[in-house]
Design brief:
Elements: E1 4-5, E2 12-15, H1 21-35, H2 41-44, H3 48-63, E3 68-74, E4 77-88, E5 93-100, H4 109-123, E6 129-135, H5 139-147, E7 151-162, E8 165-175, H6 176-190
Parallel strand pairs: 5-6
Antiparallel strand pairs: 1-2, 2-3, 3-4, 4-5, 6-8, 7-8
Helix pairs in contact: 1-3
Length: about 190
Amino acid sequence: MYAISLGDDGAELCPLEPWQAEEFLAHVDRGRELIGQHIPLADVVTDLESSRTFLQRYADKAAADAGRLYGVRTDGKLVGGVLLRTMDVVQGTAEAGCWLEPAAVGKGLITRAVGVLIDWAVEERGIHRVEWQVSTANAPSIAVARRLGMTKEGVLRASYPYRGQRRDMEVWSVLAPEWRARKRAAQAQGA
């Protein structure tokens, strides 16, 4: 299996596939409480069958060029994930998302992993706009959007029903020209 390095700390971005359902379930179990605070993954992946179904859904999306799912690993252990929940190559749009288990929080893993995913979407698939939709209560995820140079476009009030409550969702995005300009600026600083 291939892996993309996320830096000098040994973190890697790797595909997540249906044959990894047992490992994926164990990962979700380790992070269930934290993950479930803001996203439904913790409620969707509850046993081996639902784990396999979730991974198969993203394998099907990848085959249809309509989404992607990758695991974030540290020292070979699955500790989180990033995804393009939706991807419409014809329209040039995608929505990115993420999650982590508690042991991996605070290490910059998601910012680095989503950066790789956005770069691939923009440069390889021609995506013009990558969105990031996040509960207004999810401060760490909002911080990721900021670190990635995204622009807050607004708040969708009471737009997301989750666990019996309606939540406000912030919409952030980065456009391909903004992403490329940010990359050029970072490269110029590193030179």
